[in-house]
Specification:
By secondary structure, the protein is mainly α. The protein has helices spanning 2-7, 31-56, 66-69, 89-119, 153-180, 182-245, and strands at residues 71-72, 78-79, 254-255, 261-262. The strands form two sheets. A two-stranded antiparallel ribbon has the order 1-2. The radius of gyration is 43 Å and the shape is flat.
Length: 270
């Protein structure tokens, strides 16, 4: 009877896939996947709990013989081997020589750039913002032009005729003004002079603000280059000091185990 039941074609029960609107979340997690993830999470949680208990019950006065050979840096962190091959003293000294040469090249390039920026401006780098405008501001005034685009030749002729009529009207106004008398001419001249003076002042003020902005930018750039040059020079000096201490015969001073500074005695020149 059981063999006949197994011979009958049964329905294939397929696993439900991720819905189309949730495809961005990846594959649908099944129960077996959730079990593995939950088991791993609980193991990590228990391990962390054990470490917390050990840290809370740790004796700060505990001693082990490994502490005799262990070393720490000035911040109290343990110094341990990282698996890298240890270089010889000569190889490390050669690498420090190459690093010092590169730092000297970079410092010279930055110094040259800083001197170029400082020499480009005659004013001092105190940041007072005092800038003198040289030249006539009226010469920098640019006459604005207006371009009109037309559809055909007929419209272009109409615009040309209108422009010529405007010029004729202006000439007629000038002739009429000349007939008015000397008082009107003097008033017009004074008015034109006042307008020209105001325009010159506006142009000069805009030019002064532009120059002040450029000057402030150059000052900040020069200060940044100077700070970078000082940092690189300081690092190069420290590197040279380390390289000198690594030589066969020590030519510079240092600090002993007790923290006392000392200097190497130099041969007296005769």
């Amino acid at each position: 009877m059981s063999s006949m039941r197994n011979a009958v074609q049964r329905r294939n029960h397929k696993e439900r896939s991720q819905p189309k609107e949730r495809t961005k979340w990846g594959l649908l997690e099944k129960h077996k996947d959730y079990s593995l993830r939950a088991k791993s999470y609980n193991e990590k949680k228990a391990r962390l709990q054990v470490l917390r208990e050990k840290a809370s019950l740790r004796n700060p006065d505990e001693f082990s013989y490994g502490m005799l050979s262990a070393k720490t840096d000035r911040h109290g962190a343990k110094i341990a081997a990282r698996g890298n091959p240890v270089l010889s003293n000569e190889a490390a000294r050669l690498l420090k020589t190459q690093d010092a040469g590169y730092l000297r090249v970079v410092a010279a390039r930055i110094r040259k750039e800083r001197e170029h920026v400082e020499n480009a401006w005659v004013n001092d780098l105190s940041g007072d913002g005092a800038v003198s405008v040289i030249g006539n501001a009226s010469t920098s005034h640019v006459i604005s032009r207006k371009t009109v685009f037309v559809a055909d030749t007929q419209e272009q002729l109409e615009w040309t005729q209108q422009s010529s009529n405007d010029v004729d009207a202006m000439q007629e106004n000038v002739v009429a003004d000349d007939v008015d008398g000397e008082d009107t001419k003097a008033l017009r001249r004074a008015r034109r002079a006042a307008l020209r003076s105001e325009e010159n002042e506006r142009v000069e003020e805009a030019l002064r603000k532009k120059i002040q902005k450029q000057h402030a930018s150059q000052v900040s750039r020069a200060k940044a280059l100077k700070n970078r040059e000082q940092d690189i020079t300081k690092v190069a000096t420290e590197l040279e000091l380390q390289r000198a201490k690594m030589g066969k015969s020590q030519v510079v001073g240092g600090v002993n185990k007790r923290g006392i500074k000392f200097k190497v005695k130099q041969r007296r020149k005769r």
